[in-house]
Amino acid sequence: MATMTVFAFVLLYLCYFQNVTGVTEREVVDMLLTGYQKEGRPVQDPTQAVVTSLDVFLIQIVKLVPQRQVLIVNLWLLQRWKDDFLSWNPAEHGNISSIRLGINKIWRARLVHYNRQHEEGWSKTPDTNAIVRSNGEVLWAYPITIHSTCVLDIVNFPFDVQRCPLKFGSWTYDASSLKLLNVSVRGNMDEFIENGEWTLMSFDLEVNHVEYSCCPGVLWDDMTYTITIKRRSKFYVLYFVSPSVLMAFMAVCGFWLPPDSGERMFICINAFLSMIVLQQVANKHLPGTATTIPLINRFMGVGILLVFASSALTILTLSLLFKTFDLQPVPKWLRRIFCLGSPDPNIIRLAPEVSPKKVDANVLEVTELEDMDATFATDRAKATSQLVRRARKVLLQLKEEYDMMSRYEKIQKEWKIVAGKIDRCLLIAFFIALVVISGAIFGPSG
Ligand SMILES: *[C@@H]1O[C@H](CO)[C@@H](O)[C@H](O)[C@H]1NC(C)=O
Ligand SMILES: *[C@@H]1O[C@H](CO)[C@@H](O)[C@H](O)[C@H]1NC(C)=O
């Protein structure tokens, strides 16, 4: 069976060759490459420049690596030039009008990507075939993945637009020996595959003639394509911006809670920690530069400050609320600010330094009882009067203590009202501050 198959194949092969008469492609290639020198420029007149046209197809944006500031793209490069030493007459060569030649066998312009950032170095061009036409026209297309340096502008992160240039040109041929030609006004986007993270806005082209400081008076052609991409910010809004906005609002809303419930500090500290964690995670998507502060970090920074301030002010109101040591009446200026009205006369009448514990029965003077003493003559009456005196003394003392306590409670109650009012004011102030700051930071960029 196997020998039969081999036999059949040999038969087919022979039949195939029997049918082909005349010139094979190999003969054309032999004819072209015999004596071909791939290093000299392929022009009959050495004073003329080789005209190389370049077309760049943007196929895919693979990734933008923020830490390395590198854009990785897949491109198809299409170069076209005329090689005077690669032409033949098809009529004399079996009507073969075009052949394929390995690019390493013929001359090429060796255009380089100036701003590439590969670890392996400069030359990593796939050795694909070039199509050679009988009139000497060479068409060479190849796919390539390029790591191109791209200085990121992260001020508006996550609503940023990045412009990444790709500069192509010859490294050794100046404009007098190699002329670069564009085939269109902008880069080719026909084969573009959409990217999940970036929206392609434009793929522009600029043809430059540059004089470098190395070689005065010599111009060099280059073609600079610029990829403009806009970040799809939905992901970042969903996972970073909205949680941090909500977190800041929650910390502000904490002022709505009664301060003595103890929940408020809990909310503040939780919001504080969450914001810091969110900021750390968001920073993973940014290059480690300190020249500009991105939008999201500015907002988070302000949010963290707000949360911190609200924690600090919570401590203040709590300290007002549970004020027991050295309790003073609410000062006049605070009363005026919070419209507490005039203070209770009881609070004013007694010296503020006196605290309830200091009240001593011995201090009290009961003068009218002394006057009554004289009118009682008998021992019994004396004893009775003494009893009455004691009783009144005790009663007076009790009344005094009661006054003290009620005054103390009134002062405390007033402080509580002040604390509550401060809370309301802070709630409104922080709320306005948050809205204004959010608007100022996110408003202009959308
Ligand atoms: C080449 O093509 C011409 C016209 O198409 C034809 O007359 C001629 O026979 C062809 N030559 C060969 C070798 O096939
Ligand atoms: C090449 O680019 C220039 C602008 O840089 C433009 O004016 C010209 O039309 C382009 N050539 C072609 C063939 O589109």
Question: Can you tell me about this structure?
Answer:
With 446 residues, this protein is α+β, with helices and mostly antiparallel strands. The chain folds into 2 domains: 37-232, Neurotransmitter-gated ion-channel ligand-binding domain (Acetylcholine Binding Protein, Chain: A, Distorted Sandwich), CATH 2.70.170; 233-446, Up-down Bundle (Methane Monooxygenase Hydroxylase, Chain G, domain 1), CATH 1.20.58. 40% of the residues lie in helices and 22% in strands. The protein is built from 9 helices and 10 strands. The protein has a 6-stranded mixed sheet. A hairpin with a 4-residue loop joins strand 1 and strand 2. The protein is rod-shaped. Bound molecules: 2-acetamido-2-deoxy-beta-D-glucopyranose (2 copies). One 2-acetamido-2-deoxy-beta-D-glucopyranose binds next to loops. Residues 22, 94-95 line the site of one 2-acetamido-2-deoxy-beta-D-glucopyranose.
